[in-house]
Amino acid sequence: MEHLIQHFRKDEQPFIEKVIGWQREVEDRFAPKLTDYLDPRERFIVNSVLGQSNEMKIVADGGFLDAERQRMLIAPNYFEPTKEDFQISIFSVNYPSKFVNLKHPDILGALLSIGLNRGKFGDIHIDGNTIQISVAQEIEEYVAMNLTSIGKAKVQLEKVDEESKLIKMVQEWVSKSYTISSMRLDTVLASIFNVSRQKSLNLINADKVKVNWTIIDDTSFELQEGDIVSVRGLGRVKILMTEGRTKKDKIRLQIGRLEQK
Questions:
Q1: What is the reported pLDDT for 121?
Q2: With CB atoms 3.0 to 4.6 Å apart as the test, which of 69, 160, 211, 261 could cross-link to 170 if both were Cys?
Q3: Is the CB of residue 95 less than 8 Å from the CB of residue 131?
Q4: Mapping DSSP to helix (H, G, I), strand (E, B) and coil, where does residue 226 land?
Q5: Which helix or strand (DSSP H or E) is residue 232 part of?
Q6: Does residue 135 sit in helix, strand or coil?
Q7: Rounded Cα distance, 229 and 215, in Å
Q8: 23-66: per-residue pLDDT in tens?
Q9: What distance separates the 2 farthest-apart alpha carbons in the chain?
Q10: pLDDT confidence of 93, banded at 50, 70, 90?
Q11: What pTM does this model have?
Q12: Which residues, other chains included, contact 54 with Cβ-Cβ below 8 Å and sequence gap of 6+?
C-alpha cells in the first residue's frame, strides 16, 4: 500500500485513507458500501487502491450515460448490483424558458445555496431549454421542496423515470501538440490558452483554475500526465502525454481539448 500511495499527490492522502476505510467497512460487514458522487480523479484513486483485491467488486453509475460524476458501489465480489442499488434520482427543471436563460453555474449555485454538499448531486445536463440534474435518492425530497428558484426564476422539479428521456451528452477530446519550457501550471496555461504569463498568474490567483476538480492557487504546481485542467471562462483540457524533449530542452506536450458534440 505504501508503494501505491507514493504515486499520488500529498493532498490526495486524506481521500486515500477514506477509501481504505471503505474497504475495511465492506470486509467487516460483508455488505456493499455506496459512496457519494465522485469525480473521475477520485474514482481513479478508488480503482487504483482497491482494484488489486480479488475480494472486491467496484462499479459506478451517475444516472446519465457516461456521467462525469458517479456514485461507486464497493461490494464483496459475489454481489450482483442493479441500477436501484446506486440510489440515484434524475430531476427535470421546469422554468419559464421564454423569459430566462439558465446556465450551468446558475444551477450549481442554486443547489449549493440550499445547503447541499457537492457529493450529494452529480451531473447537470443542459440541452437547449431542457435541464436535468442527478441527485442522491436520500435527499430527493429535500431538493424537490427547497429548490424553488434558480437566480430570479421560479422553478419546479419533476422526476424523470424513463431512461429514454435522459439528455445524452457526447464529449470528445481533440488533441494538439505544444512545446513548453516546463510543466508548471502557469507556464502550461499561458501556452495552451494563448494568454500572457501575467494573465495565467492572475487566473490562478483568482481561484479560477482547477486541476482534477480541485481549485489550485499555487502557480508553480507541477502538472502530470492524465491531469484535467479547467479554467473558468476558457474551457477544459487534459494532459494526454509528454513526448520527450526538443534539442533546446523544451518539453513536447500533447493536450486534449474538450469539444461538446
A1: 96
A2: 261
A3: yes
A4: coil
A5: none
A6: strand
A7: 10
A8: 999 999 989 999 999 999 899 999 988 887 778 899 999 999 88
A9: 62
A10: very high
A11: 0.82
A12: 77
